[in-house]
Amino acid sequence: MREKNGIYERQPFELFAYHDKKPTLDHSVFHFHNNYEILLYVKGNLEIYIEQSRYLPVPGTMFVISTEEVHKGTILDSEDYERYVIHVSSSVIQPLLGYDVDLLACFHGHEPGKQNAVVLSMEEIVEFCELFSKLKQILDTEPYGKEVLKISCVAQLMTMVNHAFSHTIMPARPVSNLASGIMDYVENHMSEPLSLESIAAALFMDKYYLAHQFKKQTGDSLYHFILMKRIALARRLLGEGLPVTEVCDRSGFNNYNNFIRTFRKYVNMSPGEYRKHQTE
């Protein structure tokens, strides 16, 4: 899996899984994924931001992150770090919907950035790792009935994840008041230009102080955070079938050509192609 500009490049797979103990990627900038993400944190010293929530996970913490949630993770030191990660597209889960369990509830049954983490019991950790290994083997080989086995394993895994999230959710730590105020302002003014000067003026702050403190407290620049929020919003609106020109305006891109170019850079397809892919 490759990373480009803080955004994972679109993969040819609808489902993939990996387990790494020494990750080569640095997730220290805000980004999003085109697929749903399930992450089981095993060990290490990690800080995760999901929208306006901050997590310092303990071993055995599971995270679920939707395609609309801007997030970042930072490894805080050189200690051993271990995680299990699964990315799965909605097209894989869609055929499994309509039964007695909503397998997407863990991703959408909460406000963005809220209730994204749960601490698993030892039995749940063992169950998840067994299902992960089973899924990985199916994906990495060509067994008889591969597609059936894959869907069956995904159904088991997503049922297990949703059951885990029906338990007590791990509380998040809010980001600082300053960063939270800035994020709130950005969230409520997405269709506007949102220059550093305009945000600073609205919040009665010096623009240099604002930019420095946001970077210091979140580990990423305000410009990059705004850009990721704009693209995430554009993806959601395109998925709802809105015209590309309307999405351009509503997500705050004041130049159509810039919107097309920027969207393609981070999503690896044009807005029109993405809209068609999501609404077919």
From TrEMBL:
PANTHER family (UniProt xref): ARAC-FAMILY TRANSCRIPTIONAL REGULATOR
Cross-referenced SUPFAM superfamilies: Homeodomain-like (SSF46689), Regulatory protein AraC (SSF51215)
Gene3D superfamilies noted in UniProt: Homeodomain-like
Keyword DNA-binding: yes
Domain HTH araC/xylS-type: 180-277
Pfam families: AraC_binding (PF02311), HTH_18 (PF12833)
Positions of transmembrane segments: none
GO terms, molecular function: DNA-binding transcription factor activity; sequence-specific DNA binding
Protein name (database record): Transcriptional regulator, AraC family
InterPro entries the record matches: AraC-bd, Homeodomain-like_sf, HTH-like, HTH_AraC, HTH_AraC-typ_CS, Tscrpt_reg_AraC-type_HTH
Keywords: DNA-binding, Transcription, Transcription regulation
Lineage, opening ranks: Bacteria, Bacillati, Bacillota, Clostridia, Lachnospirales
Presence of the UniProt keyword Amino-acid biosynthesis in the record: no
Source domain of life: Bacteria
